[in-house]
Amino acid sequence: MSDKYFAAHIEDEIQWYLNSRGIRGRLKPPLWRTPNPPEEVNKQPVRFNPAAVDRAVKTIGCLKHTKGRWAGKSLELAATQIAYIIAPLFGWQVWNELAERWIRLRRETFIEMPRKGAKSTLASAIAMTMAFGDGEGGAEVIIGAASRDQAKACFQPLHDLATYSPLLQKAGVRTVTNEIRQPRTSSVIKVVSSRGELAHGTNPHASICDELHVHRDGALLEALESGSGARLQPLSMIITTADEGRIHTPYDKRRSMVEGVARGDFKAPRMYGVVWAAPDDADIYDEAVWDAANPLYPETPSPDFMRAQADKARANAADRATFKRLHLGMRANQKEAYIPIKDWDHAAGDGSWTPDDMAGATVYGGMDLAAVSDLCALMYTCPQESGVTRVWGHYWLPEAALDRLDHMTELAASEWVRQGWITVTPGNVTDYDFIRERVREDAEKYAIKSLGFDPWNSTHLTNQLAEDGLVMEKVRQGAVTLSAPLKELKRMTMADPPLIDHCGDPVLRWMVSCLVPYTDAAGNVKPDKQRSRGKIDGISALVTALYVQMMYNEASSQYEGGGRVESI
Q1: Distance from C-alpha of 488 to C-alpha of 494, rounded to nearest angstrom
Q2: Cβ-based neighbours of 288, under 8 Å, separated by 6 or more
Q3: What CA–CA distance (Å, rounded) separates 26 from 13?
Q4: What distance lies between CA 74 and its chain's CA centroid?
Q5: Across the chain, which distance is largest between two alpha carbons, in Å?
Q6: DSSP string of 3-72, one letter each residue
Q7: Which pLDDT score is estimated for 430?
Q8: Phi/psi of residue 120, each to 5°?
Q9: What are the residue ranges of helices labelled H in 72-218?
Q10: Closest of 485, 493, 492 to residue 345, by C-alpha
Q11: Which sign, positive or negative, has the C-alpha torsion 68, 70, 75, 76?
């Protein structure tokens, strides 16, 4: 394995367990795996308890497959699942002085693998084990989904396992509406799709967050993890496929944490993480790569299935990106990669200038005022004699919207406010007086040639700025109008060396990772707020500014069909 990836070797204790229990089968190590436990945690001894693993394996083995060619057969865990998931989770224990007993060491778990890796079955089996086979009275197990539809999809395998397992039926486990209950022990499994569905005082013994990459913010995950403080040995588990490579998302935060612990950047012995995926430089059509990236291959997915998906990937760029992400676990997607984040980072410049250095220079502006209760952006562009265009801007956010943006960015928004990148205005709507005052100050500092804005979303502010002497340009926001400047932004970013210098603006960097453009039948593109995952107001403002710059510096006829720009 390349030294770019870090996966701790399987522990001697777990290898002994596999040998002593006669568990056979080829082990498939993950691409990333957090380190083996130390001998002590917080000065308390750590041990491996094979009996605890036996109990979990036995409980899961009492469940029955409900679909496909395995329907009706007992759930028999593969050697890889036992070695890298079940044994590390249930086998390692730490002494608890307060309770005077051994308890589970791992409290937080991150499991990632490509699709068709039996994630839903495994998650359901672990949920059943934690609810009805962990010796916890009144166990409450909550599965967190990103939507109601996803919640239904999560509940169905639970329902089927409970319905078709004779042992669970004998133990009094019943399906009640949208819950699985065991009245005798007051234990329950339920699926929720929002923070609001969690009853006040929820105290989960275990929580399972399904497909973290589709959660728009971390509110539900935060609520699930923070509610288990009264439990002695809770388990918070995330089980997911890879995302599209966006930054400052709940998935990105957890995946980065796993990689950091695996590399040894910091220690977190109570957390366990495994990621099965193909390396970034792998040959995606090599069947040996498919085998390594999928822990249960060739049982699932089958070679025929993978070959069919690979055939589509060869023929189409969009299908190729989907194949890499969903079936090889590679964080890549054709939509979010319109401007790859690594190329954007390369265009951050050397930090040798600040906006104050642009005093007196001719600049072009673009505004995205959006909704009054949301983020607003103003971006400037300043072409240099070297051919590089310097870019900077301002952002405003109503105070009441900061918490929502924090959830979307895993608290990065508050840090951006503290650093001065975002200005928070009082109340629950943006105070446009703040924006007007900033533009007036900028007009005294820079030679603002023109400010572009969306006439459809025109407000009293644009009229005020015109009265203040600013040249305000109406820039239509259709694909025909914005295609040239958006493509120019991409070209400038990916040039070698880059022809844009954004000075490392972290807010704009996040927005670039969220960008999903709309493409019309003629191949014209524009930033698309509906399709994008997260805010892209800064990108919209920057593209508008580039349009104005191009209009003033190029013959408008050069941009065929570029749309009409009107001054007010």
Answers
A1: 10
A2: none
A3: 17
A4: 34
A5: 83
A6: TTS-BPPPPHHHHHHHHHTT--S-----SEEPPPP-SEETTEEEEE-HHHHHHHHHHHHTSB--SGGGTT
A7: 83
A8: -65, -40
A9: 79-81, 87-91, 119-132, 148-164, 166-170
A10: 493
A11: negative
Place of tokens 């701790």: 8
Of the candidates 546, 537, 544, the residue with the CA atom closest to the CA atom of residue 371: 537
Question: Is the pTM value of this prediction over 0.70?
Answer: yes
| Closest alpha carbon to 275 in 298, 300, 251 | 251
Token digits of residue 541: 């403002």
- pLDDT at position 335 is 41
| pLDDT for 536 | 93
Give, in degrees to the nearest 5, the angle at Cα 465 between 462 and 467.
Answer: 115
Contact 488, 544 (CB under 8 A): no
Q: Which amino acid is at 216?
A: R
Residues (pLDDT < 70) of the chain are 1-3, 66-68, 70, 72, 195-201, 332-337, 371-372, 458, 554-568
Nearest to 34 by CA among 215, 273, 276: 273
Residue 165 confidence (pLDDT): 83
Return the axis-axis angle of helices 506-514 and 537-553, rounded to nearest 10°.
100
Residue 65: both structure tokens together: 């497959």
Cα atoms in the Cβ-side hemisphere of radius 13 Å centred on 152: 2
φ/ψ region of 167 (left if φ > 0, alpha if ψ in -120 to 50, else beta) reads alpha
For residues 84 and 30, the answer to whether their CB atoms sit within 8 Å is yes
